[in-house]
Design brief:
By secondary structure, the chain is an all-alpha fold. Helix 2 crosses helix 6, helix 5 crosses helix 7 and helix 6 packs antiparallel against helix 7. The mean pLDDT is about 90. It is built from 7 helices and no strands. It starts with a helix and ends with a helix.
């Protein structure tokens, strides 16, 4: 399967791809909030995707993706990262993968194009779900935090009277 070979290439080059993607995160005004995330943590999360892309695309179930990305959304909410910047980070990751494949010239012949289409379908499915689950986790965490804050406000109001 050509898509698997392309994914393996991405995994083999994942260290360099991670370095370049982090540079994009830090340079883009759309992801400037990601600077609040400790660099090591951001590197580990990025490497988790790029270095193990075949696992995410071929082996992980939708509940695995849901669990992981809801968790990421909740963590980013707690870190005070804007949801738009979190989502742009995921979008830039997907675009970064395609930029790499185009730069490497693997999208030339008919067989490669078919493999790229197959890979694009898998990537779209994964990243679309990652975006939705991340947003759900983010919103849930923000709502939980607001409820805790509202509860404390009501508590202090009751104690004052």
């Amino acid at each position: 399967m050509i898509a698997v070979r392309l994914v393996r290439l991405i995994e083999e080059k994942s260290d360099d791809l991670t370095d370049r993607l982090l540079a994009k995160f830090y340079a883009s005004p759309r992801t400037r909030d990601l600077r609040k995330v400790p660099e090591h943590e951001l590197r580990v999360r990025t490497q988790e995707i790029l270095g193990h892309l075949s696992d995410w695309l071929l082996d992980k179930s939708s509940p695995d993706i849901e669990r992981r990305y809801r968790e990421i959304g909740a963590v980013r909410a707690a870190q005070g990262i804007s949801l738009a910047h979190v989502i742009w980070g995921i979008v830039l990751t997907k675009e970064h993968i395609w930029d790499f494949l185009q730069r490497e010239g693997f999208l030339g012949g008919p067989l490669e194009i078919y493999g790229a289409m197959e890979l694009q379908r898998l990537l779209d499915q994964f990243f679309d779900r990652a975006l939705c689950y991340c947003a759900e986790g983010y919103e849930e965490a923000r709502l939980d935090a607001a409820m805790v804050t509202a509860g404390r406000g009501a508590e202090s109001h009751v104690r004052a009277h």
